[in-house]
What does this fold into?
Amino acid sequence: MEGGGLPAKHKVWRLEKRPVGLVKEGDLVIHEEPLPQLTADDQFLVKNIYISIDPTQRIWMTDKEQYLPPVAIGEAMRSGTLGVVVKSNTSAYQVGDLVAGLGSMQEYSVATPAAGLQKLDKGLIQTAHIPLTAFMNVLGFIGITAYFGLLDVGKPKEGETVVVSAAAGATGSLVGQIAKAKGCRVVGLAGSADKCRLLTEELGFDAAINYKTENVEESIKRHCPKGVDVYFDNVGGDILNILVSAMNLYGRIVVCGIISQYNNEGQSSLTTLRDYEKVLLRRLRVEGFIVLDYFPRAAEAIGALAGWFAEGKVKNRVHVVKGLENGLKAINMLFAGENNGRLLVQVADEPAL
Amino acid sequence: MEGGGLPAKHKVWRLEKRPVGLVKEGDLVIHEEPLPQLTADDQFLVKNIYISIDPTQRIWMTDKEQYLPPVAIGEAMRSGTLGVVVKSNTSAYQVGDLVAGLGSMQEYSVATPAAGLQKLDKGLIQTAHIPLTAFMNVLGFIGITAYFGLLDVGKPKEGETVVVSAAAGATGSLVGQIAKAKGCRVVGLAGSADKCRLLTEELGFDAAINYKTENVEESIKRHCPKGVDVYFDNVGGDILNILVSAMNLYGRIVVCGIISQYNNEGQSSLTTLRDYEKVLLRRLRVEGFIVLDYFPRAAEAIGALAGWFAEGKVKNRVHVVKGLENGLKAINMLFAGENNGRLLVQVADEPAL
It folds into this structure.
């Protein structure tokens, strides 16, 4: 089936050099290229509407050990995507279907069913008034990450104290909201007064700490008078090490990300957990997790999150940058902490539903 | 009831100075003192037969954060003990009862039921020919530590690879034997060729690595061709950090002890876990545990261990030093790694049963 009106060319961000430190022009380069063509029976063509900008992309740009194959030099840069099927050779995906999953930073992509793109429920979107961006955030990878990372790995109990770093970020802000929905005391760490206000005034956090201006150790003590039971770590580095010493007996540290270190090439000494003896003495559990492992259970998370979203307990905060050509700029906004909410690049207008 | 023939005086090791580095004369001092007297209705007098020498005693000698109150200056040095009741004001403990638990390094001690000393089953000891020392080793704290640390925290599956450090030590050797009983590949790290031979030739380990003479990183790769699923860490330090990089996806690091650091006052930078990012990328679980938390489930461990002991699957290896006056010498033997098996100081002859 033919979607009609397709351009002859489109734009693609390709990885041309492995970045050292921050991602610079020349590391990622945008190209205008011929529109990809369907060449096999099971293929379909997706027109991307949104692509997501994630800290983990910085890992994919390296050739260090990681949890997915590195993006090869010359390859289109991998990213989360949400798009609409505009041409299809397979009945499994039909023109007009909305699909979300792992794609890359380009206007159009050829996919097969094996790519595992999830079809979105248009009926639900219309009746429940769910914004499309929610599927790139609360009801997407981010939601699944926050849900299982906090509940399955962190296992907070009602009344316990949960601390989350990068708390104004996409995952962190959701972790805090879920922890509140579960009856925990929630303290967030963020890098500006505005972000801290957002956490306490809009997202229901009990307290927020500006790690750039406050003494984190003292602020944690003040805001966590009963100690810390779960630390959801998005950053690693010094903040991790302060938290290790603030944990209660049987505390859990959920290792979700180490954003403080992603641009520190070769300084692996920075990714250390000091005071390892506290892991012993306080019987801490320090556990890493990657959302991919939880994809088989995604429906459980999405179901719970959709409920909380409908009740207003979790908010869909997105920061949309328009235009694929701003992809590199958006990546650097993320590492500078300049985004407010889940950072998306809008590649095309949303379709009428 | 009176046990008869009690001396007027006895010997006691007291902590007189907090050691810096290795424990030296003057830190622990042996005194001859009047025999302690029963002064309350619920008291009984224990004549100690064995006291155990444990790495954790070095922690108790400090006033750093720890899992039990530090031993106070002037106090009798805490230790594991096995003894016989020689005088009692309470029907809960009768003269002739054999008792084991936490006591101190002295010939006689006054205890109450609240001290939680376990009464040993003399009938079982006689019919099953269980040596008394087994209750200070395989069927005591050590056994409970190895059993729950490996099985409850490490959760090895049949066919997985388990690595244990300080593998010729009391806990490590037992961990390896239990892992073999559970069908795992077991590799031990020890500090001499003799200890390595013991592991492979007598205790059934699949391989042993002499960490003092071998390149541990290469030896781990050679002996663990499928990677490491469980690392039972008794030592911390450099070996921990080599193992972090050898762990498989979803690997578990059981934090049982950090003996390499116990004599390193003030060098807390040594107790670091480097390559924290591997905890994330490989979804590792790093979990500390202290045997005290498992005391309520002790019977489960002792039951299983008694079965394996009867079948010859776990051996009761003890290294007995005679004479309470050799207590300090024994402590330094332990940290020099000079003992072969569970290190006990024999304070008095075993009673006829």
About this structure: Chain A has a mean pLDDT of 93.
